[in-house]
What we know:
Blueprint (H helix, E strand, L loop, with lengths): L1 H18 L10 H12 L1 H13 L3 H17 L3 H24 L7 H16 L3 H14 L4 H17 L3 H18 L12 H20 L8 H9 L16 H16 L2 H11 L5 H15 L7
Helix pairs in contact: 1-2, 2-3, 2-4, 3-4, 4-5, 5-6, 6-7, 7-8, 8-9, 9-10, 10-14, 12-13, 13-14
GO biological process, one term: vesicle cytoskeletal trafficking
Protein name: Coagulation factor VIII associated
Amino acid sequence: MAADGDFLARYRAVSNKLKNGRQLCSPSHTLPLLYCNLLLLDRPDSGQLAKELKQQDWLQYAAFCNLAMARCEQTLFNAPGEALALTDAARLFLSSEKENRALQAPGFDEHLQAALNCYSFAIKEMNRPGEAIVHYQRAAELQTQTPTEALLSMGDMATCKILTRDFDGALSVFTDMQLLCQEKGLQVAGTSTPVGAFLDIVAKCEISRVLLLMLLEPPPQKLLPEHAQTLERYAWESFDPHSQETVLPDNVFLLLQSVVMACQEKDTESLKSLQTELWPFLTAEQNHLLHLVVQERITPSGQGI
Length: 305
């Protein structure tokens, strides 16, 4: 009871500090929030709290605290500190998973998945995306029972492939992600269009795949059937607004269709104009791909092939 009282007293003390407007980061869980702000407001006590949680066998909560610490280190642009906190969190998650299995407690391997993600993010933060690819791929394989988690790992794997300029590999991953969404996700009755989070992922993959195809420009004889089918949807002569199923908003679809046409016609000026119009609708990664497409049209390098 005394320990609980001390913990609550420390929590109230930190909460009062936060009310004064000195909160610097906001993780989603209560204990990580406490640890994160203890780290920034009272650094020596923060380390002690993590040790106490670990000693009391609250391994997953201690891991959450390390995740909060990693977020704070990220705010301070301290990549080595962030990687260290992530690996500490991964070890704690893994220990918690081993403990659950030893007790034969029911679960969904969530701690194992969290450990894999922490290790992968740590490698990525140390600017080694090539090494992170293997870990993200392994994580996706272990997350087959939880499709949304597997899709997140696959998305991170595709990002790493883009960073290492393996554009063909990234295209393959995005294609697999779309197929997984269609296979595992709920669909609108009478169509193959997924709903909810799966729809958002399919839309993101669709845009990235089209941009990668414009960057790679594979010759017709090497164009896979699924990629040819994607490009056909953006061919002006085959577009029927009444029968065409698209997962994208109409304005984004038309702009992306114009990008495909501009690339096929090698119209660089139109492509530059479309880049400006599409910019607010794309993610940072997709804008990077579109920038590479434009640069490849201005000064062809062949590096994307």
